[in-house]
Amino acid sequence: MKFAMLARNPDLYSHKRLVEAAEARGHSIDIINTLRCFMQITSHRPTVHYDGQVIDGDEYEAVIPRIGASITFYGLAVLRQFEMMGIFPLNESVGIGRSRDKLRSMQLLARDGIGLPVTTFAHDPKQTEQVLEIAGGAPVVIKLLEGTQGIGVVLADTTRSAKSVVEAFRGANVNILVQEFIKEAGGTDIRALVIDGKVIAAMKRTGGEGEFRSNIHRGGSASTIKITAEERSTAVRAAKAMGLNVCGVDMLRANHGPVVMEVNSSPGLEGIETATGIDVAGKIIDFLVKNAKPGKTKTRGKG
Description:
The protein is an alpha+beta fold. The chain has three domains: 2-97, Rossmann fold (3-Layer(aba) Sandwich); 119-181, ATP-grasp fold, A domain (Dna Ligase, domain 1); 184-279, ATP-grasp fold, B domain (D-amino Acid Aminotransferase, Chain A, domain 1), CATH 3.30.470. Helix content is 32%, strand content 27%. It contains nine helices and 16 strands. The strands form four sheets. Strands 14-13-12-15-16 form a five-stranded antiparallel sheet, sandwiched between helices. A four-stranded parallel sheet has the order 2-1-6-7, sandwiched between helices. The chain has a four-stranded antiparallel sheet with strand order 8-11-9-10, with helices on both faces. The longest helix has 14 residues, at 229-242. It is globular, with a radius of gyration of 20 Å. The two termini are 33 Å apart.
């Protein structure tokens, strides 16, 4: 089979591993720079133009979107074009869009009864005190809606500092979420890798010294972990709520059970493959081989 990967950097570990896994199974992947694509949007034969060539619906069996957060809008437009052409997406554009919008993703997870930290969202800076009170008071975690890899996440230890951060962000017309701080998590979280409704690998991530964020990009470390049945069920339900075939579900162990912090639609593979020794890239390719069929691009789920 022949796959396309929408990615800007072919040298990233995750991208090289996916190419290796495909070639080891007798398939091929063309890496397409998402920003160098342009689209011909027509009713009868939509196409993508890339580096002087025209890509139509017969070119590839499936497309693997590895769209960076900074180009979400354009990347999803390109992915939708591939979907219009009947090319099977590893993750559908709607599911990726849901996961990239932190507020929408939290609302969808809450709708499905999935454990979350208490989360608040408001427009008016005058409501800051009530927002902080609902979130359980300081310390609180303040997140930019558009942040990723731990960027745009602030821990405010006191009510005064929390008010200052919230008011500064809102004064700059930046949308934020305020969440309760799960102290008992101790600076660690769990990343569960879900493929096709099953958790196929899980790791514990621990933040660097003095760092409450556990992202590996922020200097955190990873190790293998045995997750509970409840954590496994939470991760699978979170993936389903987003409508994602492949994702990383980030959870904290709270006193009342697992709570979901984020669902990542383009999870990095280096940390989890290194920590667990599991061939995650190969399992992703196996999923595509099993499921990719022309025209099978219908969005699942609601909202």
